[in-house]
Amino acid sequence: MDIVDVVPISDLRVRQQEVLGKIQKGPVVLAQRSRPGAVLLSWQRWRELVDELELLPDTVEAANTRTRLGGGEDTTINAEDYIASRGGTISVAPES
Fold first, then answer.
1. What's the CATH number for 5-41?
2. Which of 91, 69, 70, 71 has its CA nearest to residue 82?
3. Region 15-40: what's the mean pLDDT?
4. Which of 38, 50, 63, 73 has a beta carbon 3.0–4.6 Å from 30's, enabling a disulfide?
5. d(CA 1, CA 64)
6. Strand order in the sheet with 35-40
7. Which part of the chain is CATH 3.40.1620.10?
8. Mind listing the pLDDT tens digit for each residue in 34-89?
9. Dist CA 86 CA 16 (whole Å)
10. Nearest to 3 by CA among 25, 30, 35, 36
């Protein structure tokens, strides 16, 4: 794990620009009474984490489907079967 900067929360008031500059390099822990109280992240890193978390349920479901099919890492399932396994259906627009 990366080394994290720890900054007293009182420093945030007087060294705001410096602390905000540090979050571009990595997370900054705000300490209150010498204990971790909060973590500051850059907006970009926050979005990356949120995007990863939003994909996590699909990743887990895909792994569970692979296990149910009894296959290894090279087991594949087509989209229609996957959606059907989750109780959904695919509607296909007629060709014009």
1. 3.40.1620.10
2. 69
3. 91
4. 38
5. 29
6. 5-8, 28-32, 35-40
7. 5-41
8. 899 999 999 999 999 998 888 887 778 777 777 777 765 666 667 777 777 767 66
9. 48
10. 25
Q: Name the helix (H) or strand (E) containing 39.
A: strand 35-40
pTM: 0.55
pLDDT at 96 over 60: no
Structure tokens at 21: 């500059």
The single-letter code of the amino acid at 95 is E
Look-up of token digits 């990595």: 26
Q: Which of 15, 17, 42 is nearest to 28 (CA)?
A: 42
**For residue 72, what are its two tokens?**
């290894």
